[in-house]
Specification:
mainly beta; RHS repeat-associated core; RHS_repeat; Stv
Length: 954
């Protein structure tokens, strides 16, 4: 960084290491009156008004070159007490004589109040609805009690040095901490008495963590505290090298494969080389904004910004553009996608989203309460209302088709969820883990865990599964009756073998997996299917599947769309051959043609037949992109119903009159996981239920039960254990005698031919997907997936944030999953999940954001450090957040801000829509700045939220 000074020794310009320059102009009073980059970036004119003789207040006006003015009312202590944005909306801040904020009133007149004790510590926060949160402190200024808006109390104790020794939740469950003579953490004992032991170096950083079962992870650190080697409990070591600035330089996996990074002088990553040698390069423009990314296959994405540093255009490798427009305050007014479709947005004076209109003119409008929570949603005339408890947790949601009600315990956990007339109940242990669940059909499941938090026993519908794990927590054995499934892992933590052993000791199934250096699957040796090899391109996409009597081939364009596909004649050949696109819309695949509406949603699929008229499917959608009806070639109509959270709760086959329901399938959800379906049809006199148990999104069991429609008495039951592949997709159903009852033939992208030699099957497909035979699609929570084209039938509702191709499925289905139909996730479905970090360190969790151009800093207090798992401007996804909360070692630390260091003052929003639980997690019911959440002596705090830079929207 270079600085220039004038004769008055004032800084008049700085130039960074990428030769980006920023200038300042002063008046005769040494005040900056203008500043900006050489190409107009963040250019402003600053006018200082005179002081009011009566109040001493003055107005400072900051004006952009476009004429957009923001006005700051400054008191006689030089504190900003009101801000008026370019649209005339004003936020007021009231301070006491010590400069502490007493209240903040937003542009809608909603006031949040703060009170302090005589030592200046915040003791109450009063929300606009009158709800209050309170805190009390000890002589060391550390919180002794915090009381939530719902009256729940957390209590803390400390030793004489200020180290926290206990934390007691509102139910009386206590976590205990011990320290050595230097104040370093030595153990964490949860409320069940399970102890994790920690050994720290002289700087207080963990160098050994031993879980309650004795498994030890060892950390070797350099002089700056950065880990240079991590050795897991089985002796596998991952090594890291760092730049002087603390950024990752090389990462060497236990199997010797390595990744490397390179940076420019500003610390921006300019290159990443993966373990197979694939090179991704990055280019930057003003203020370290990403200008271009070139992937290993040469695909190049370019990014354009305006002078306010707002993203205005993304250009994909095909030259298609996605553009954004903003209002004078920086809020997004519209976005126009790669196909020229425009979504428009409207906001209230505080910047909250109040409506979204799609290209068809369908509008979703939102109404909020004084705390900013959505209380009513109108989706093109279909209304849904929401009710919350004093802590801001959802208690009731009444939609046009389904009403949801939640009953919660003192910790806010849902103990009962009522959807229409269907009730799901849960019971939790002291650590918040589910130990009992009952579905609407009456299926009961119980769960037991070991001291390390891993599930050891699952009993469902009278059948018991026992699980065993290695010291790293990976499942090595599963036993159900006299049948067992054994799993072996390689040094890099990848599944290398699965063996299904029947009651007589015979091998019923065996699979061995081989991998490329970068972790992509290269081959499977399957006892029942034979050997398969996979060819991949430079981007990691599978181009060929080669096996005896079985081949598949795929070609892709530079944006990742399939351009050609072929597979074995065991599957329907209608969609094999070339794919044709208009923009991102697929119009033809083989003998099938497609039509879409103006919002990019599939409305027609038509299959050409040589000697008959075409088979045609029609699809209709609502304003929220829910598929509402499907009409099949024989004229049958299926209607789909959804709850207020967007989960499909029923599908109905209608009679020829289009009204009478002749068959209905009801669905039950546990959070975002489908756990049960009940089918009522004239062909079967009694309802038939399928109940599933999962580990995350990986299914473990399926139980089929027939119950008397009148008495609810169980008539028949069939139990199946589910074996899954690397991604978590079912590959076999195994009955209680150890016999493989179902084994499908599936293409790479999920098109399935069921093995109908048996009497059962499962509709579960890729994680989070459910196959609908009537439509030919897979329901995937927020979207529907077509396995014959590896595409979704609607664009991603999150736009380009999750992935550069908003319609294609994941890059490689062996390694990536998208269980919600929202965001691809690269992860291991076999990775065990715990509900708390083994080191007991606190996690701040929710939705994180900061507005473009907001340079407000937060200073890390003494005795506290903030750990980041993404770089500034990058998102994180729900599975990432869960991994941070659980302390998963695969979550790579990107930055650590130590005591006294400055970082952007991100705003944390409530974790709406996220299934996060564990201890200790810090969340908020209203948006709160990071600076308000950090206290002295918190130790290491982990930020489990996005660091996204954009206007604050829903």
């Amino acid at each position: 960084m270079r600085f220039e000074y004038d004769t008055e020794r004032r800084i008049i310009a700085w130039t960074d290491t990428n030769d980006r320059r920023y200038d300042y102009v002063y008046d005769q009073n040494d005040r900056v009156i203008a500043e900006g980059g050489t190409e107009g970036h963040i250019s402003v004119r600053i006018d200082y008004g005179p002081a009011d003789e009566r109040t001493g207040h003055r107005v400072t006006t900051v004006t952009t070159p476009e004429g957009h003015a923001t006005r700051y009312l400054v008191n006689h202590r030089c504190q900003v007490i009101a801000v008026t944005d370019p649209l005339g909306h004003t936020t007021h801040t009231h301070r006491d004589r010590h400069g502490r904020i007493l209240s903040r009133t937003d542009a809608l007149g909603r006031t949040t109040g703060y009170t302090y004790d005589t030592a200046g510590r915040p003791v109450t926060v009063t929300a606009p609805d009158g709800s209050r949160q309170t805190a009390s402190y000890n002589a060391l200024n550390l919180p002794l009690e915090t009381t939530g808006a719902d009256g729940t109390v957390w209590r803390y104790t400390y030793d004489e040095r200020g180290n926290r020794t206990t934390a007691t939740d509102p139910l009386g469950n206590t976590t205990r901490y011990t320290y050595d003579d230097h104040g370093h953490l030595t153990s964490v004992t949860n409320s069940l008495g399970d102890t994790t032991r920690v050994r720290c170096d002289p700087a207080g950083l963990p160098v050994e963590i031993t879980d309650p079962l004795g498994a030890t992870t060892v950390y070797h650190r350099d002089a700056f505290g950065r880990p240079t080697a991590i050795t897991d409990p089985l002796g596998a070591t991952t090594r890291m090298e760092w730049t002087i600035e603390g950024k990752p330089l090389r990462r060497i996996a236990p199997d010797g494969t390595e990744q490397s990074w390179a940076y420019d002088g500003e610390g921006n990553a300019i290159a990443h080389r993966d373990a197979s040698g694939g090179l991704t390069t990055y280019e930057y423009t003003h203020f370290d904004l990403l200008a271009a990314r070139t992937d290993p296959d040469g695909a190049r994405y370019e990014f354009t910004y305006d002078t306010r540093l707002r993203l205005t255009q993304v250009t994909n490798p095909q030259g298609l553009t996605w553009t954004y427009t903003y209002d004078p305050t920086g809020r997004t007014l519209s976005e126009t996608d790669f196909d020229g479709r425009t979504l428009t947005y409207a906001h209230d004076p505080t910047g909250r989203l109040v409506s979204r209109t799609n290209p068809l003119g369908q509008t979703v409008s939102l109404e909020r309460d004084v705390c900013g929570r959505i209380v009513r949603k109108d989706a093109d005339g279909q209304a849904t209302t929401f009710t919350y408890d004093p802590a801001g947790r959802l208690t009731e949601a009444i939609g046009p088709e389904v009403a949801l009600t939640y009953r919660r315990d003192r910790m806010g956990r849902a103990v009962a969820e009522v959807a229409g007339d269907r009730v799901l109940t849960r019971t939790y242990d002291a650590l918040g883990r589910i130990v009992r669940r009952t579905t609407p059909s009456g299926a009961k499941s119980t769960f037991a865990y070991d001291a390390a938090g891993r599930r050891t026993t699952l009993t469902t519908c009278g059948q018991t599964l026992d699980f065993a794990y290695d010291m790293r927590g990976r499942e090595t054995a599963r036993r159900f009756g006299d049948t067992s499934l054994a799993q072996i892992w390689d040094p890099a933590g990848r599944l290398s073998e699965q063996t299904l052993i029947g009651p007589s000791g015979d091998i019923a199934q065996h699979r061995a997996y081989t991998y490329r250096p970068d972790g992509h699957l290269a081959g499977i040796d399957d006892h029942l299917r034979g050997h398969r090899d996979f060819d991949l391109d430079e981007a990691g996409r599978v181009t060929a599947v080669r096996a005896e009597n079985w081949t598949e081939s795929y070609a892709y364009d530079e944006a990742g769309n399939q351009t050609h596909a072929t597979w074995s004649t065991d599957h329907h050949q209608d969609t094999t051959g070339a794919r044709v696109y208009t923009g991102t819309r697929i119009t033809r695949a083989g003998r099938v043609r497609y039509e879409h509406d103006a919002a990019g949603r599939l409305t027609l699929r038509q299959k050409t037949r040589l000697s008959h008229k075409p088979d045609t499917w029609h699809y209709t959608w609502d304003a929220e992109n829910h598929l509402t009806t499907v009409t099949t070639p024989d004229g049958t109509t299926w209607r789909y119903l959804y709850d207020p959270l967007g989960r499909r709760t029923a599908k109905q086959r209608l009679a020829r009159d289009g009204k009478t329901v002749v068959e209905q399938v009801d669905f039950t959800w546990d959070g975002n996981t489908l756990v049960e379906q009940t089918t009522t049809t004239p062909d079967v006199p009694d309802p038939v239920s399928l109940t599933w148990e999962h580990d995350g999104f990986r299914p473990l069991t399926q139980t089929e039960r027939t119950t008397d429609a009148t008495t609810q008495r169980e008539i028949d039951r069939r139990f199946f254990a589910i074996v899954t592949d690397l991604a978590g997709t079912p590959t076999e159903l195994v009955d209680d005698t150890g016999h493989i009852a179902w084994r499908p033939r599936t293409t790479l992208w999920g098109a399935t031919t069921d093995d109908r030699t048996g009497l059962t099957h499962t509709p579960l497909r890729f994680p989070g997907q459910y196959a609908d035979p009537e439509s030919g699609l897979h329901y995937n929570h927020h979207r529907y997936y077509d396995p014959t084209t590896a595409r979704y039938t609607t664009p991603d509702p999150l736009g380009l944030t999750p992935a550069p191709n908003p319609v294609a499925y994941v890059l490689n289905p062996h390694r990536w999953i998208d269980p919600l139909g929202l965001a691809p996730y690269e992860g291991n479905p076999f990775e065990p999940w715990a509900d708390e970090r083994p080191d007991g360190e606190e996690v701040i969790a929710g939705h994180g954001v900061i507005a473009a151009g907001d340079g407000t800093p937060a200073r890390v207090p003494e005795g506290t450090s903030v750990v980041m798992y993404s770089y500034h401007g990058e998102p994180l996804y729900e599975m990432d957040l869960r991994a941070i909360i659980a302390g998963r070692p695969h979550m790579e630390v990107k930055e650590v801000y130590g005591p006294g260091e400055l970082l952007p003052d991100y705003e944390l929003h409530p974790p709406d829509g996220l299934e996060l639980q564990g201890s200790p997690i810090i969340t908020e019911k209203n948006p709160v700045r990071l600076s308000f959440m950090l206290d002295p002596n918190m130790g290491r705090v982990h930020w489990a939220a996005c660091r996204s830079v954009h206007p604050m929207e829903e």
